[in-house]
Amino acid sequence: MHMYSYNLELEIAMQKKLYRSRDERMIWGVAGGMGKYFGIDPTVVRVIWVLSLIFGWFSIPAYIILAIIIPLEPQATE
User: Fold this and answer.
1) What is the mean pLDDT of the chain?
2) Which of 20, 38, 44, 45 is the most buried (most CB within 10 A)?
3) How many domains does the chain have?
């Protein structure tokens, strides 16, 4: 296995990790991170959170738990 292909596979695997977003955030970046992870607009994730809040109270504790357990996205190095 060549070093280039190993680095490419490692980079792809690291990109698919769930993080709280640093740039797509309204409160703690959970919806932004989920949007990036699933490849959808974070606004869609936020709308789903609001709808779940309307139809049940579980979204608030779930959001807080996710904000605690999901790590913050690493800072980009340029």
Assistant:
1) 83
2) 20
3) 1
